[in-house]
Amino acid sequence: MSDISTRAPVGPVAPVAPVHETADAAVIKGRHSENVVVGEEIVRHSMLSRVIHWSVAVSMGICLLTGLPIWTPIFGWMAFLFGGLQVCRWLHPWVGIFFFASSVVMFFHWARQMWLSKSDWAWIGPRLFSYMKSETDDSQVGKYNGGQKIFFFTSALAALALVLSGVVLWFPLSFGQGLRELSWILHDLTFILFTASIIGHIYLGTASEPGTFSAMTRGAVSKKWARFHHPRWYREVTGEESRRR
Fold this sequence. Notes:
By secondary structure, the protein is mostly helical. The chain has helices spanning 19-22, 25-29, 47-71, 85-110, 126-132, 146-170, 177-205, 223-229, 231-238, 240-244, and strands at 36-38, 41-43, 220-222. It has a three-stranded antiparallel sheet. The termini are far apart. 22% of the residues are buried.
């Protein structure tokens, strides 16, 4: 008697869908494109944009974790995460160079989209707090709102301040005492303010606005999210903006 497991199946066999048809359509589209509609989602960031973003984010995180034990003994325990304080002292400036290089790439990649309009400047003030309380009229907000644009340019300035002051601290004997002291102040003050802003950035991208984080992981957001947070961008991508004219 033959083994039943070797017999051919009886009756019609359901076709097996190719892998590319069963995969996430928005993720596939986001490998090379953005600002396109895929079903009930919109591709917000391409693969290239996400790689650039995470290169900056990860290198910034490593700089923070290696820099804190150098900054004060209170965070000395963090040094053991990297093999000791001496490893942190060696690793920190090199990762800092990578962070700055990634920031430069990010700046030129997004600078045109982040150009500030007259209305965007209003975010420097009460509008930011009104936005946090959902009390603003966002009907004309494009792909990026004024707060995101200002954060983009201040982050670029912070990266520049950190690398310039960091080079002086990396090679202290090559510079005068006055410049070294100024660099200590600039480096510390910039990293404190930048870290605080990063915490706010993470909060807004996760807990505060659910659905936002997927833009930097899968590359796509829901239509509902886009319509609520970036109405004009939603209308432009879906074609509603042209129909309104």
